[in-house]
Amino acid sequence: MPRSPVSSLLRTAALATLLIAALPAVHAADAPPAADAKAKSDLELPPLPDDKTIRQTIRLNGKPFNYDATVGTIKVRDAKGKVIGEVVYTAYTVPGSSPNRPVTFAFNGGPGASSVYLNLGAIGPRRVQFGAAGDTPSDSSELQDNPHTWLDLTDLVFIDPIGTGFSRALEEPAKAKADFYATEPDIKYLSRTVYDWLVKNGRLRSPKFLMGESYGGYRAPRLARELQTQLGVGIKGLFMVSPYLDPAAIGDDTALSPLPWMINLPSMAASHLEAQQRLTPDAMRSVEAYTRGQFATDLLAGRSDPGAINRLVGKVSELTGIDAVTVGRLDGRLDIQTFLRELHRGDRKIGSVYDANVTAYDPFPASAERKSGDPILNALIAPTTSAMVDFITREVGWKTDAQYKALSYEVNAAWDRGASQDKPVSDLRQAMANDPKMGVLIAHGYNDLSCPYFTSSLILDQMPSAMAAPAKLAVYPGGHMFYSRDGSAQSFKRDAQALFTK
């Protein structure tokens, strides 16, 4: 994206929440059974505990709801049958259900994020509050029943990729980077992890769904196609939550493309409208029409039209609430970093890239450049980590001395992203073409500037018309973690229910 170095770093950090060669990895099903007990790793690490299941109860819709909570592991093996990694998952299943009960596999993003955010924030049976205005690191990490859980619709399996949560590589760092921390091997071993869980738990007959948030939204369509075509597992539905769906569209590989500016403007405008209590779908349709039309035309016109920059400056200032002098210095091209700082400059606060209306005090207000972290990102690590570790080790009794990584900056830094390509979009098209019955729901929050909703809107508009019917875009009040708002979480579940019942 054509951003300053600081804002480019912010974009990378944003993709770290919440944000090559094919891996020659196989799993336990391809190795002799006796190899499990004798497997040797390159590292001297204590063994992880055996799988552990407990029965739990929440109140859902005013009634007791019983389910089993399991913490377990899936081994990752190389082509010779050697264990090179262990994936830890948390599963919630309803005992005594029909073999045809749906099961949903959920992934967060980063790269380097565990699945705790979808688990304890969005659709799991219990939750801890994070991602909204006023949340702080010292807030309570006590879990509460989640009235918006999807467990009454589907069993849930939350998968922590290698290097996140308690999942771990059993190789030296250089080998782990090649085998796990790159776009292509990531899809290979995570697809096989889904397959192995289904076999291990006798669930191959179940309707199968995938959910991915942020970079997990990059994973989801690619996992669906890999499972369809390489592992023989059909996917009934895809849920992409604030997805990082088209790296090529928002990249900074070309100075000519108007797309990055077009993608960001509606979310900036939505944040300004919400602050004024004027955010409505009708208001956003007007913003989107301008963005597709005169805004794009004026961006491309440049110096060929003497009035283009003046029109850009005036309209962008009006839509975003940033003064015309500041917007004028940028020739109407308002970057995310400037917007988040200038929007709240009068209060000496900074906005979050995940939700521009969630703020924190700027610790360095006199600095020309922002020097602090993201308000939401800084606030959510402590409560989510404490809540998840307490649940796994104390409630479930899956005891380990390993450190839990809700968000691994080491994994994010090591990640080989390869070339900026639209593989998620290409794989989504092919997966949908392979299976016209597969439902697709792409969900965003209006205020998200880390993965703006307008990217997905433009992508769906370019889909072949014969394939467009199964895909739906839903945009809710809030930001990247829009599900932290009760109303948006309720709407998201209602929209998702249509895929489970179709």
Automatic annotation (TrEMBL):
Record keywords, A-Z: Carboxypeptidase, Glycoprotein, Hydrolase, Protease, Signal
One term of GO molecular function: serine-type carboxypeptidase activity
Source superkingdom: Bacteria
The keyword Cytoplasm is assigned to this record: no
One matching Pfam family: Peptidase_S10
GO biological process terms on file: proteolysis
Gene3D superfamilies for the chain: alpha/beta hydrolase (3.40.50.1820)
Signal peptide: 1-28
The protein's name: Peptidase S10
Organism encoding this protein: Duganella margarita
